[in-house]
């Protein structure tokens, strides 16, 4: 994976063709569960220009989407091969190879989000697109996503209320740890609705 990542970064620097970049992104997407954060920190081709972002978030969206589409294709194939009784023994069950890969990728994305959240030039729409990539079942806990969202809100204090609300909707409050719930309940950067929800969950938990 490190080799593919290095090739993609070189291709970007050398202004390689779109087809070349797309092929490298596809190859990375197929092996995404083997990646580390450094592998997906793809530099923006415009980095250094005023108001440009440090990282190419659109490239990363494509890479993660390839992995997620592969997962969906596997689900479709599984549904054709198994009858109802076989569905009781689901390949996506905790500890299965597939579920393990999905959880690795979800942690990778949350770490990536926390890194790019520090970029003051990253548009809220781009960050929201990244945060909304994973389906609900892909995260066992939401603490990593909450941390990334909180960093983004801290670095982007002037974000629109509608964007703030949509961004926070990506967090499944029921998957927050007690510690994260306690922090969120007192977090003035969050919409009031979310603060009330986590406060309720922390008291009822």
Automatic annotation (TrEMBL):
Domain of life: Eukaryota
Signal peptide residues on this chain, from the entry's feature table: 1-16
Pfam families: NPH3 (PF03000)
Keywords: Signal, Ubl conjugation pathway
InterPro entries in the record: NPH3/RPT2-like, NPH3_dom
Transmembrane region(s): none
Domain NPH3: 1-205
Family affiliation: Belongs to the NPH3 family.
Protein name: BTB/POZ domain-containing protein
């Amino acid at each position: 994976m490190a080799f593919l990542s290095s090739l993609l970064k070189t291709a970007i620097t050398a202004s390689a063709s779109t087809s070349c970049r797309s092929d490298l992104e596809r190859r990375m997407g197929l092996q995404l569960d083997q990646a580390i954060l450094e592998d997906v920190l793809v530099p923006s081709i415009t980095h250094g220009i005023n108001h440009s972002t440090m990282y190419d978030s659109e490239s990363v969206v494509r890479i993660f989407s390839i992995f997620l589409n592969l997962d969906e294709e596997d689900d479709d194939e599984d549904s054709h091969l198994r009858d109802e009784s076989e569905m009781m023994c689901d390949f996506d069950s905790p500890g299965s190879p597939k579920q393990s890969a999905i959880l690795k990728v979800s942690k990778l994305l949350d770490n990536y989000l926390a890194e790019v959240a520090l970029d003051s030039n990253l548009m809220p729409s781009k960050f929201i697109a990244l945060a909304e990539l994973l389906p609900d079942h892909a995260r066992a806990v939401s603490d990593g996503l909450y941390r990334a969202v909180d960093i983004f809100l801290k670095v982007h204090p002037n974000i629109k209320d509608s964007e703030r609300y949509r961004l926070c909707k990506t967090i499944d409050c029921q998957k927050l740890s007690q510690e994260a719930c306690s922090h969120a309940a007192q977090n003035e950067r969050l919409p009031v609705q979310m603060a009330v929800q986590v406060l309720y969950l922390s008291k009822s938990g």
